[in-house]
Amino acid sequence: MQGSTPPISGYSGYPEDDDQYKVPLIAKLLHALPHYNITFHRINNTFRPSNDVYLESLGILGSIPAALLIVSLFGLLLYLLTRCCDRKPRPAHSITSLKVTLSIVTVLCCAAIGLGLYGNDDLHNGLLEVLQAGRKVDTAVSSVRNQTFILENTLTMKIQQQLTELEDIFDGKTNNNTALLQLQSALAATKGNVTIAKNAANDIRRPLVGLTITDFLSKGDQWELIRWPGTVAILALLLVLCAVLLVGVARHSRCALILFSVCGLLAVTGSWLMSGLYLSTSVAVGDLCNDPADFLVHQAPNELPSDILLYYTQCDVSRSNPFTQRLRESHNAINNARNSMTTVSKISPVLFKNAGLGPKLGSVNADIKLCERILTQLTALVDCKAVHYSYLSATRGLCEGGLLGLVLMLVASFMAAILLTVMVWVDSHTWIYIRKRNDYAQVEEQSYVSAHQLHPQNHQNMNTRTLPHQHKGPPVISGSHTLAHPGRNPKHEMTPQQQAHMHHHHQAMMRQGGTHTLGRLPSHNNSPTHMHGPNNGKYATLSKHCKTLDANDFY
Questions:
Q1: What is the DSSP letter of 320?
Q2: Angle at 443 (CA atoms; ends 442, 449), nearest 5 degrees
Q3: Which of 145, 262, 436, 481 reaches 20 to 30 Å from 119, CA-CA?
């Protein structure tokens, strides 16, 4: 039947060099990866998703990026422990180099994320081809089942019942027994041929009863409807996170850098976990693509013989169609039934003129012609070219475009994980040295104090001078070493709050080192001519070791 069937439109122009599935190179490389179980014994790498040992080997492969995640997080922890308490100011050029490095690594990470988006699109297109080809195969199988069911129903419920009614009529008495025997013989031959055709149709339909992939296709559609936009959303969030980091680097924003440090840890964890998932999936798909026909044979229902699957997956001209013999038997039986009904239609109206056999005979002949048309359609449906082309489309969509996209996503996630880890390290090193203005002021004040500590002689010379004697009123020095010259003008007098502040400040300085603010000693009086007291009218100094101050030190 296969040789006499004309080529189906759309498949006749298919190149002969591409009529068989060829394992892609990337699938061979992934299939060649060693598979080990939990005891580190190498196992068979044939794709068997129902085998626990095989799934265990895939889990071990997927745990490699998880181990790298642990190592990277441990290294980041050690780095933060050594750098979190380092408040030493750095020169401006060192922070600038960190910012430049951070910008370059961020741009590279964005490129890796873009590669992941490209691979996700390739995987999406490949899976769509698989689902579309699967729907075509499922439609072809359903059509064969439906046509064989209609054929069986027509032969059983219509033709056989009408033949039984005719047999009851032909049991009557007639004057021509020879013609009656000939009529009964033709009717029996018709019933026998109908039974043969019915059994042949049942043999064609029986292996296909349990072969249905509608549920698998529905789940695949739902899964891909979630996976594709979900992956795009995750990668888009990573791009937004990289944009936040670039903005923080450009605007010298410590808040944005700290935000990236926190969210970057989640991004690093997610990237490594996705790398493990993509690695396991890529190896599994590579094992499947190494011999997809063998997987289909093992996953097929028990009612479906393996020679049927191999015939449609290979479509080799040297193989005979497993349905050809049954179709030929059904064709021959229907033709014989039609010929027998021709004899019945000639003899019965003569022997049984008043039985009203015309409608019954016409209905049987019409049903036989319907069965012939169904068999013609079945001959075209069971041809291997259409199913084989769908099989090639599915395998190439999954093992070429889809597997390539999956590997690109694996590479992208692996690169993104490494780059994000570096970004978190550099970012954590950068934002520590980006301080607020108050922090810079504090650093300048500490530098000022450190300068006085490094040059104590200059500091002592500044504080060992005397105050002038010719001023009418004693100058007062506040706790911040600012000189004030209060006079008799009310606007120069201190308020009660200022006096209380000066009093507390004076007591604090006395407790620290015995120093006090400048002013006349208790023994001083206001006489300009005679100065009493232990210092002869001179003013107290800031320290016990200080000399008197000159007038030029203030003006």
A1: P
A2: 90
A3: 262
